[in-house]
Design brief:
single chain; alpha+beta; Immunoglobulin-like; 5-stranded antiparallel sheet; 2 domains
């Protein structure tokens, strides 16, 4: 293998790594916490984990159609949750998720930021009107259409209830979103809130709704990755 082939491979590897980082960043996957939150309290160790399936970040979503997610909340600590719920919020096109500490809570959640404003109602879509949300307090595979109800919403944030959750127990619920006639890139944010003894803990998940659009940064990331793979293939072919 000659000098130029080695250089081609090195540049290719660098571009593949850079392309992967740009792609993951555009999908919001680099900012998602995949490590369950655990904190120490006077009553013992409190732990919480929340995750959603499937992710829509890799898809182009069509307006007028209904999409569903299964949301799982797991008590990974030693203390029962006296109550737990999750909030659902959809940021407007162009908004970005940012971390925020909620007063009186342990852990951090995500909220929307737009035009210099953070966690402002104007940065969220009207999920009580234009965007329709329904949910059922059971896994998607078990929920019938009759069991889906409209959640309680305030200031364009909807709350879905898990109830009490024992240590080691996990509970699932299914929620659906009907996308209105629009286009753009919208962050969907879920914040799980659990009461543990005298403490309130928070954990978050993020997904993206690309409605009839391809995220430009996603396209750039894929392009960089493909160019890098091409350079690597050229270098290895000249052995």
């Amino acid at each position: 293998m000659g000098k130029y082939e080695k250089i081609s491979i090195a540049i290719g590897i660098t571009q593949v790594i850079l392309g992967a980082l740009v792609t993951l960043s555009s999908l919001g996957l680099l900012s998602i916490s995949i490590v369950p939150l655990a904190v120490s309290t006077p009553e013992g160790r409190a732990g919480v984990d929340i995750y959603t399936l499937p992710y829509q970040s890799l898809s182009i979503v069509s307006y007028g159609k209904e999409y569903q997610w299964e949301l799982t909340a797991k008590n990974t600590g030693e203390i029962p949750w006296s109550s737990a719920w999750t909030t659902i919020r959809i940021g407007i096109d162009g908004s970005v998720p940012v971390k925020k500490e909620f007063p009186g809570s342990l852990g951090v959640g995500y909220v929307e930021k737009c035009d210099g404003k953070i966690d402002d109602e104007t940065c969220r879509e009207d999920i009580e009107g234009e965007w329709k949300i329904t949910y059922a307090s059971k896994p998607c595979s078990e929920a019938t259409s009759e069991e889906f109800t409209t959640p309680t919403c305030e200031l364009r944030v909807c709350s879905l209830t898990f109830g009490e959750v024992a240590p080691g127990e996990e509970k699932k619920l299914c929620f659906k979103v009907t996308v209105p006639k629009t286009s753009g890139r919208y962050p969907l944010i879920t914040n799980l809130v659990a009461y543990v003894g005298f403490n309130k803990i928070v954990d978050s998940e993020i997904d993206w709704l690309n409605v009839n659009v391809i995220d430009p940064m996603l396209a750039v990331g894929i392009a960089i990755t493909l160019v890098g793979m091409g350079l690597m293939a050229y270098g290895f072919s000249k052995k």
